[in-house]
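pasting for the record
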Amino acid sequence: MQMILEERIEALSLLGDEIEKIAKDDPKLREAETRNPWFTQENIQLAFKGIRHLLDREKLIQWTNAYSFDQPLKVIGVAMAGNIPMVGFHDYLSILISGHKAQMKLSSQDETLLPLLHQKLVSIKPAFEEMVSIQEKLSGFDAAIATGSDNTARYFKYYFGKVPNIIRMNRSSCAVLMGEESEDEFALLSQDVFQYFGLGCRNVSKIYIPEEFDLVPLLRAWEKFIDVADHNKYANNYNYQRSIHLVNQKHFYDNGAILLIEEERLVSPIGVVYYERYSSQDDLKSKLAHHADKIQCIVSAKGWYQGSIAFGKAQTPEPWDYADGVDTLKFLSELR
């Protein structure tokens, strides 16, 4: 018998409690880091913290109250990304809470952690076992959700084009500074820049600053993350970018962990954050509008800029903060 919504919410909220009990020396966590060195134990724990935030019972109730889940049960094929630990969890959560079945193609970069969480969920509510399957190749699905690069999106659109689908492409995030931020606020912003080594679509890769803004205090506050330069893969990227810009004699700011480079583009490489100066609020609005279809989220001090979130909050989205702004639950609740 299919579970009712209240049962699904209760079990998923209990999963949040179980995640807190996963020992930091669990061999599955070490296996994940061995397979993908970007998945440090610190970043895995950060991802767990974000998932626990999503699984708060009251949040799940508030989130689902806006939808009616009387649709027939469907099999949803999911092609997941692997840029940060368990980045596909929100799709997994959305499918299960809406009562559908998930057929998941995991990224080769992240094949260990989500199955671990699913085992924990099944131990809480065995009925979830038949609601999820992990496949090498997706087939026989009724709808699809796929996340990847702009290049893979073309393949996804072809492969999933005959069924209802959500196809996500490259996105990045940015920060808006007014020039009156405190050192503590700069430190909060550094979390949005450095967490997950900047690999997530919610990581800040570009900052917009007033014309007379002094970048030195900002870089000084960001030194709290200086240790990221000790990570081999991050250091390789940072040192490569530094060498390239030295050879090209292009001006940059450097604090030993990140380069700040003036650039109109939105998406910066690992080890670099782009900055761009604005002359007025209208100028800023115009610059942001130019990249609107590629911005995942905007952060600002205490969320002062309209439509933004506060510094330090980029990697703890709410359940209703949808990737690419596409309402996943609406999509799932309206499948017929």
